[in-house]
Amino acid sequence: MKNTLLDLSSKTELTYLSELTRAFRRGAQDLPFFVAGATARDVLLQYAHGIHPGRDTRDADIALMVPDWASFRALRSRLISDGNFMPNGTVMHKLLFSGRIEVDFIPFGGIEEPDRTLVWPPDGSFTMEVFGFREAFGSTIPVRLPAGEEIQVVSLAALAVLKLLAWKARRLTAPGKDSYDLALIIRNYLEAGNHERLYADAGHLLDAPDFDYELAGAWLLGHDIARILPPDARTVIAHILKEQVDPHGTAWLVGDMPIVAENGLALLKSLEEGLLAKRD
Hints:
Elements: E1 6-7, H1 15-28, E2 33-36, H2 37-49, E3 59-66, H3 69-82, E4 85-87, E5 94-97, E6 101-109, E7 117-119, E8 127-129, H4 133-137, E9 141-144, E10 150-153, H5 156-170, H6 177-187, H7 197-201, H8 213-228, H9 231-245, H10 252-256, H11 261-276
Parallel strand pairs: 1-9, 3-6
Antiparallel strand pairs: 2-3, 4-5, 5-6, 7-8, 9-10
Helix pairs in contact: 1-3, 2-5, 5-6, 5-8, 8-11, 9-11
């Protein structure tokens, strides 16, 4: 599973992201960052492989590694002073780019609490879970955008992890949002540049009498997730999946996915099997 450069410089629809990247990099200076969320979904599915997500996004999520809150505040001030960004509401992590694109910033790294949450200043009344972002950072994909701009984008395997964690954290406040994207990734994983890898990394599935293309993609996705996560993070993901494929459990995730429940359960089971499979 090699994360080679993805050249999308001819996709003029991504000019806005190129402009956003250029402006953000000036403010970020040497702080590492990558694109996550629905923007990453669209880049890796729609623009790279022609798989339309079925729902549009008008915002961008940028995850950035910062050593402390002072660095984040300084970054925010630089972005606003530059003139391309302006506050979007009263919260610190939301800005508006060029007056039309909502940008959510997700800082992680040195500012995390021991439980992998952020406690936002000044009064700590707002908390955010950032488990998974540090892990995702290690498997980002370099993407070339129009005008030669380049940016790191979260991989589909890491995005699936973030969507699963986000679903668990906010399924009651944002019903259907994260489960929709998770199902989209699982069902299209082979078509998103992984078809040839089926033969090399999951050839044993081809011999099954009841071979199913989407289930094979789910297995390969689980296998890739296991490759990018350290053991402690794999345990967290495995626990969530175990709960959601339990025939005597709540099956909340299956119920939230926009597909027939029986098919959704089979996909999640295959995802779990890939995650737990013995690796080379």
